[in-house]
């Protein structure tokens, strides 16, 4: 076996490993369920309320 074939086999094995790891990661993230958007609450209202009520 020449060195070119060995490099090609190692590269292919690494590529297949990364592809399988990616698919597993996507499945794990998908199992967590639907993404819930962040609250649309305005933080400026809290700051104004605290400033007004402290004086």
Description:
The chain has one domain (3-54). Helices cover 75% and strands 0% of the residues. It has 2 helices and no strands. The longest helix is centred in the first third of the chain and has 29 residues, at 3-31. The mean pLDDT is 81.
Distance between the termini: 83 Å
Mean pLDDT: 81
Q: What count of structural domains?
A: 1
Order of H and E elements:
HH
How much helix is in the residues? over 70%
- Shape descriptor reads elongated
Poorly predicted runs are none
**Number of E strands:** 0
Number of helices: 2
Structural class: mainly alpha
Rg from C-alpha positions? 26 Å
| Proportion of beta-strand residues | under 5%
Summarize it.
The protein is built from 2 helices and no strands. It has 55 residues and is mainly alpha-helical.
């Amino acid at each position: 076996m020449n060195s070119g074939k060995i490099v090609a086999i190692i590269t292919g094995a690494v590529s297949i490993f990364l592809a399988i790891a990616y698919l597993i990661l996507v499945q794990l993230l998908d199992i967590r369920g639907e993404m819930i958007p962040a609250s649309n609450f305005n933080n400026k209202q809290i700051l104004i309320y605290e400033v007004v009520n402290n004086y």
